[in-house]
Amino acid sequence: MLKYVRSGFMRASAGVIIGLAWLGATTDALAVPSMARQTGYQCSKCHAGYPELTNFGRQFKLTGYTMSSEKWDDGSATARIPISAALQVSRTSSSDVLAGGTNGDGSATSDFPNDRKNVLQTAAIYLGGKIANNIGALVQYNYDGLEQKWGMEMFDTRYANSTDLGGKELNYGVTLNNNPTVSDIYNTTSAWGFPHTGTAAKQMPVATLIDMTLASKVAGVGFYGMWDDSIYLELANYRTAKSGAFSFLSAGQRWDDAELAGSVVDGNAPYWRLAYQKRWGPSTFEIGAYGMTANVWQDATDLSLGSNNYRDIAYDAHYHYLEGNHSASVGLNVINEQKNWSDGVQAAGMTSNASDTLKTVRVDFHYYYRLKWGGGLQYFETTGSNNELVYNMGDALMGSANSSPNSKGWLTELNYFPVENVKLALRYTTFQQFNGASVNYNGNGRNASDNNTVYLLGWVMF
Length: 462
Fold this sequence. Notes:
It is built from seven helices and 16 strands. It is mainly beta and 462 residues long. The chain has a single domain, classed as Beta Barrel (Porin), CATH 2.40.160.10.
């Protein structure tokens, strides 16, 4: 790992990181972000290493972000301001930007425009917290420094209430959001899964539809409920947000971009989530499943190719221990996808198979001491059907000479919170296999290890 962490990388980033830490240190922890002002608690009341949630944090989300302190209820002007902001500055260093992926003159391809550069990764504005009785929201509108665009990153607004059902409490609500899984109260599904923030690297395994592929591209209304603090159920339906009344949920998406042409949902896309939780002492255990079915246009600019059918079914389990100075958790997430190619795609010779499968497995462990020092370790693996016409396209970075999406590796991240609203992170991602091979996976000399990356992040919320 250390041979990739070059001294120039560290020196160039140090000033930015120190500046972010100073900014956070000069801010009253109870004044930021807006949800902390609203509840009167420190951020660690809800989060055990952002964005992992504590029991209180899950209850806060379940009740529509509306729980508040007496100060808020008494009408304090400061407490009632629902606006927060965040800055993320990062630097990504890929192991090799040349091997098997050079232009004719030997220079690096355009796949690495931000490599070894300090980048303002995100500048975000949040609307977060209680809006009115029983109504709250968590909305993020931001500047994406990697794609250099402004847009609606996250939108989740809720109505929440409670009643009695069978002698037990039922918390229920309605959510309008722009990303399947963002509404989940456990923050363990794809929208919130570790490692929480992306890097500038584009060499990443193929993803399933439910694994953030539709993020900020759809609009959905869902109904959810938690009965007896043990059984959680959510049912929702999504449609494309390319146009129509809810198009603001996809603000900033460049729909004329070729990469987005295959992210437009055709009709309805139902989503479901079921989970069981058990709490005892300092421990919480959750086990569940979630999934969605959708038809997605192969190319929204050429509807003659038809829409492909996706069926994603996922399973997750999560154990969290929080006591005194110690916070530890272990999680498992498995996503299985069945993809049926449209008749138009098959007739056009764009796929070798009538249907394909894709499976993603992630196992991760987190530990924090005093919610100040800690980090996470993750094993990830993607496997799927071989498809020469889909994967063996000759791309210098993402092509697969074996026509395979199979990838696996490890991700290690160290975190330090100098104050609770500032996060400093150092991440190392190592690939043991990429797109079907460990050595020469693209047929042009690029190895899986050439995609290893070091990532340095400074993140402040205020």
